[in-house]
Amino acid sequence: MLKSSLLTVAALWVSAASYAQFVTNGNNTTTNNNVGIGTTSPATRLEVFNSSDAQLLIHSSGGDGTNTELNLLGGAAGASWAIGTNKTVAGGAADNLFFYKGSGTAGTKLVIRDNGNVGIGTATPNAKLDVAGSIFAQGGESHFAANGYSDPHPGVAHGVKVGSDGIAVNGNSLFVNGNIQMGTNAANSNLDVNGTIHTREVKVDTQNFPDFVFKPTYTLPSLKEVKNYIDEKGHLPGMPSEAEAIKDGISLGEMNKKLLQKVEELTLYLIEKDKELKQQRVKDQQQEKRIKALEHKLSKHK
């Protein structure tokens, strides 16, 4: 009997030594060992294991306005974080998941609201992702799926807006359906700029060039015809009037072609005048010779 009792005590002692030892002191129960729930070999201070569905429930039943938190404390000063829920912070009775630095909602760094909105640096996200601060993205690509959203300009409430209709910047620069508008929201062409453009070079593609002026088949209007046109219309033939230019603007490529055509016509006029001057110079030289010959004959009769 004594032998049997000793064996029982020994077995209980070995069994107790193999598991965590808990000490109760008032309302506190503590242990210096790892605690396993669903496992006999916990690898950390607390390990919960289930082969199909391991869950850990932290529950507060205090009603609306009650916080439920998981606090993470580091060894260094200030190394304190908390993950918790709060129903009334950020407005309204809603279950929100908060990530705090320190304790309390004043240190909120990230919040996930029950409507799916995520806030970083703000406890009141007004969109699916609301960031109060800078965003830095490096590597890879960023994609925006519109799925029916088409804003980017009405209301102009934000500095930069992205929608299915394009991108709006400060309400006056838009990138819409392949068109770019800067300083204006009137989409009249692929690029609309209400302001100054500073660039090193502009290249304009063209389908034709006014070298036809130098072809023998080209009829060069006489200077008299040009003068009559200017007297009647107030501008060069083939050029827009001042009123037309102010109303419709000018096409850079088309205007350069027109200007070049006028330069080429002017060159032909100069060539023609140079030819006439040379012919006149020959006539003048011939007349000068005749005059000298006559002067010489007259001198002999004196």
Record field, number of beta strands = 15
> Mind describing the biggest β-sheet?
6 strands, mixed
The CA-CA distance between the termini, in Å, is: 184 Å
Question: How many individual domains?
Answer: 4
Note down, in words, how this protein is organized.
There is one protein chain. It is built from 4 helices and 15 strands. Residues 1-17 have low confidence and may be disordered. By secondary structure, it is an alpha+beta fold. The longest helix has 49 residues, at 252-300. The termini are far apart. The protein has 4 domains: 1-56, no CATH class; 63-134, no CATH class; 146-198, no CATH class; 210-300, no CATH class. The protein has helices at 2-17, 223-233, 242-248, 252-300, and strands spanning 23-25, 28-30, 35-37, 46-48, 68-73, 80-86, 96-101, 108-112, 118-120, 129-131, 160-163, 166-169, 173-176, 179-182, 191-193. 27% of the residues lie in helices and 20% in strands. Strand 5 and strand 6 form a beta hairpin. The strands form 4 sheets. Strands 5-6-7-8-9-10 form a 6-stranded mixed sheet, with no helix packed on it. A 5-stranded mixed sheet has the order 11-12-13-14-15, with no helix packed on it.
Compose a concise summary of this entry:
The protein is α+β, with helices and mostly antiparallel strands and 302 residues long.
Primary descriptors:
15 strands; alpha+beta; disordered N terminus; rod-shaped; 302 residues; 27% helix; 5-stranded mixed β-sheet
How are the secondary structure elements laid out?
Elements: H1 2-17, E1 23-25, E2 28-30, E3 35-37, E4 46-48, E5 68-73, E6 80-86, E7 96-101, E8 108-112, E9 118-120, E10 129-131, E11 160-163, E12 166-169, E13 173-176, E14 179-182, E15 191-193, H2 223-233, H3 242-248, H4 252-300
Parallel strand pairs: 3-4, 9-10, 14-15
Antiparallel strand pairs: 1-2, 5-6, 6-7, 7-8, 8-9, 11-12, 12-13, 13-14
